[in-house]
Amino acid sequence: MMNAKINVLITGAGGGGSLGREIMKALLHSKNNYNIFVTNSSVLSLALFETKNSFVIPNASSPEYTKKLISICKTNKIDVVIGGSEPEIQVLADNSTIFTENNIQVISNPSNVIKTCSDKLELINYLSSKSIKCPKTYSFDINLTDKIDTFPLIIKPRKGSGSRNVFLCHDKEEALFFGNYLKKYGHEPVFQEHIGNHSEEYTIGVLYADQGKLSVSITMKRVLEGSLSTRQISISPYSGKKFVVSSDVSQGYFNNFPDLCRFGEKIAKTINADGPINIQCRKDEDGQILVFEINPRFSGSVASRSLIGHNEPDILIQYKLNHVIPETNKSIPGYVMKDFNEKFISLSDVQKKS
Predict the structure, then answer these.
(1) How far apart are the C-alpha atoms of 312 and 307, rounded to whole Å?
(2) CATH number given to 114-296
(3) CA pseudo-torsion sign 248, 314, 46, 307
(4) Which one of 3.30.9.10, 1.10.645.10, 3.40.50.20, 1.10.580.10 gives the CATH number of domain 6-108?
(5) How far apart are CA 45 and CA 269, in angstroms?
(6) What is the distance of C-alpha 290 from the center of its chain?
(7) Environment class of residue 15 by beta-carbon count within 10 Å: exposed (0-12), middle (13-18) or buried (19+)?
C-alpha cells in the first residue's frame, strides 16, 4: 500500500479547535496520498463542509454508533479510522476487534490505557508507584479541606481530560465552593497540588507502538498568553503572584528538548501505550519534571506539530500499514501560534447534510 491512496476516516471533526479537525489539518499537510473522510454528530460541524466525503452520524453513546460507522467504512473502503473526540476514542478502542475483522485499522491505544489515563486520580497513583514525580492528588472531601494548608490548589473532575471545569483555588473557601459546584453537576472532584510556574509548562507528544519498535516524540513549551491558550488567570490575594491555568488550545515554542522527549518516551513505556499519547507537565523550581495529566490520544496541537515536519497521524498510519519507521525528527526552533477563521455555510448546504 506504499503508493496506493489510503482512505482515512476521522470522527469528531468539528469546528475550530476540535481534535478531529486538527487531525484532518495535519493529514492535509502530509506529502503522502490520503483520501480523507470525516464524521460528526452535528450537521453544523465546520469540517463537514470542508470535504465532500463527510457524514452525519449518531453520538458515540448511541447503540447505533458502531454499526453506522462500520457501514460507512465498508461502503467507502476505509483503511484507517481515527477517533477525534474522547467519547468516540473510547468506543473505538472498546470495539477495535470488530473493525479489525473488517480489515480496518483503528489508530488507538488499548482500552485499558485510555481508561487509566482518563481517571486523573488512578493515573497519578499509578505513575507515583513507578517513581515518576507528580503533584499530590487526592479526592475532594469536605473534612479533608479543613486540613489543607498549602494553596493554591487545582480542582477538577476526576474523569475525562481537557481544561473544562478546571479551577484554581487560593483558599479553603474557594476549594469548598468549586468542589461542591462540581459535585452538584455530577462530577467527582479531585484536588491537585499546584506546581511550578506557567512559564515552564510543556506538552510532550509521543507515538509509542509494539513495545517500543516505534518510539518518537516531540515537545512544545506552551505560551500561556491571551484568551486562546488560557482558561483562568488570577492574582493571589495573599502573595500577589500571578497564576495561570492553561486551556485546551495549545500554542507555543518548538525545539528539540531532548530531556523532555526522553522523559515522555519513558512514560509511554511505563503506561504500556500502543498509540499516541500527550503528556502535560511542568518543571518545578529545581528543574524536575512533574506530570499532571496524560491524554491517551493525539494532541490538540497535532496540526501545529505537522507544520514543523512532525506529522503524527501520518507517521502512525505509515507505521501501522506500511511498517515505516521515520527518521528522528529534528525540530526547527520556532513558534506556532493559533487563530480562528470564519467560514460562511449556506442554508442549502446545511440542508443537504441533514
Answers:
(1) 11
(2) 3.30.470.20
(3) positive
(4) 3.40.50.20
(5) 36
(6) 18
(7) middle
Q: Grid coordinates in use for 32? A: 503522502
| CA dist., res. 280 & res. 349, Å (int) | 39
By the 8 A CB rule, do 229 and 200 touch? Answer: no
Q: What pTM did the predictor assign?
A: 0.93
The DSSP secondary-structure symbol of 2 reads -
CB 168 within 8 A of CB 238: no
User: Which amino acid is it at 81?
Assistant: V
Element (H, E) at 193: strand 189-193
Tens of each residue's pLDDT in the chain, 354 residues: 566 899 999 999 988 778 999 999 999 999 999 999 999 999 999 999 999 999 999 999 999 999 999 999 999 999 999 999 999 999 999 999 999 999 999 999 999 999 999 999 999 999 999 999 999 999 988 777 777 878 999 999 999 766 789 999 999 999 999 999 999 999 999 999 999 888 999 999 999 999 999 999 999 999 987 777 888 889 999 999 998 888 878 889 999 999 999 999 999 999 999 999 999 999 999 999 999 999 999 999 999 999 999 999 999 999 999 999 887 666 678 999 888 778 888 899 988 887
* Nearest alpha-carbon partner for 51 in 354, 353, 299, 339: 353
Task: Using alpha carbons, select from 167, 168, 160 the residue that is nearest to residue 186.
Answer: 160
Instruction: Dump the DSSP string for 115-126.
Output: HHHHBHHHHHHH
The Cα 179–Cα 41 span in angstroms is 32
The C-alpha atoms of residue 192 and residue 137 are separated, in whole angstroms, by 4
Question: 233: how many CB neighbours lie within 10 A of its CB?
Answer: 15
Strand partners, 244: 233
* Domain spans of the chain, in order of start: 6-108, 114-296
